[in-house]
Amino acid sequence: MAAIAPPSSSALPVSLARAPRVPAATLEPTWVRTLLIIVALAFLTLFLFVPLASVFAEALKKGWDAYIAAILEEDAVSAIKLTLLTAAIAVPLNLVFGVAASWCIAKFDFRGKSILLTLIDLPFSVSPVISGLIYVLLFGAQGWFGGWLQEHNIKILFAVPGIVLATIFVTFPFVARELIPLMQSQGSEEEEAALVLGASGWKTFWHVTLPNIKWGLLYGVILCNARAMGEFGAVSVVSGHIRGQTNTIPLQVEILYNEYQFSAAFAVASLLAMLALVTLALKSFIEWRLRDTHEQFQEQGS
C-alpha cells in the first residue's frame, strides 16, 4: 500500500496555511500563567499604581482650593512656563537632528557610521549629573569659554540657555533611536523609485519617507518631550536653583519638599504625573498604529 503523503501548505485552507505556529514554550499549565499574571499585577500595584495614587492623594489632601493655589503660586507658574519653554526649544531641535541622523545611518553606508551610533547612545550611558557638569566645564567662570563669555556679557549657566543645552543633550537620542530601526526595516526601494521617476530629494522625503515614518517620529517626539519636561539631574547642575527664574517643575518640587511644604510639592508633582499618564496613553496608541503599519508592510511584501 502506498504511503499517503501529508497535505502540502498549498492544499490547506488559506486561514490554516497562514496561521502562526504557537511556540511550545507558551503552552504552560493554567496555574503557571495565572501565577505569573498575579506576580506582574502585584509588582505593578506596589511600584506603580500605589505611588502614583499617593501623589494625587497627597496633592488633594488639603482640598481643591489649596491644590489650585499651589499650582497658581508665582514661583510654580514661573517653573511651569520655563519647563514648557525648554521643551518647546529642545524637542524641535532634537526632531531635526533625529530625522537627519536616522536618514544618514539607515540610507547610506559611510566610514564612522558605528562611531555616530555610539555617540547617539552616549546620553543613555552618561549620568545626567555628568551631562550638566560638562557644560559647567565649558561655560563656567573657570571653564574653557568662561572668560570670553564674561567679557561679552553672555550668560549660559544659571540661565535659560544652559537649561536648554543640558536638556537637549540628555534627550537627543530618543527621536533618532526610534527612527533608525524603522527606516532600516523599510529599506530605500521606495525612495529610489521616486528619484528615478524624477522627484526631487525634498519631494521624496515629504511624500514618500515621511508618511512611512510619521508614527515612529511622533512616538520619539512624545518620549523626548516627556523626558525634557521631567529632567532633573542635568538641569539641577546648570540652573543655579534661582526661584522664579531658573527652576523647572522638578526643581520646584524639590525646593517645596525640602521646605516641608508637602501639599504644594505634591500638587506641582501631580502635573508631571498627569504628563506621564498622557504620555503613556499616546505611547500605547502609537504602538498600536505602528503595529498595524508593520503588518501592512508584511502583507505588501508577501
From TrEMBL:
InterPro entries: CysW_permease, MetI-like, MetI-like_sf, Sulph_transpt2. The complex is composed of two ATP-binding proteins (CysA), two transmembrane proteins (CysT and CysW) and a solute-binding protein (CysP). NCBIfam families: 3a0106s02, permease_CysW. Its main location: membrane. Part of the ABC transporter complex CysAWTP (TC 3.A.1.6.1) involved in sulfate/thiosulfate import. Probably responsible for the translocation of the substrate across the membrane. The keyword Transmembrane helix applies. Pfam families: BPD_transp_1 (PF00528). It is a multi-pass membrane protein. It is found in: Cell membrane. The keyword Oxidoreductase does not apply. The chain crosses the membrane at residues 35-57, 82-103, 115-136, 156-176, 262-282. SUPFAM superfamilies: MetI-like. This is Sulfate ABC transporter permease subunit CysW. Keywords: Membrane, Sulfate transport, Transmembrane, Transmembrane helix, Transport. Residues 80-283 form the ABC transmembrane type-1 domain.
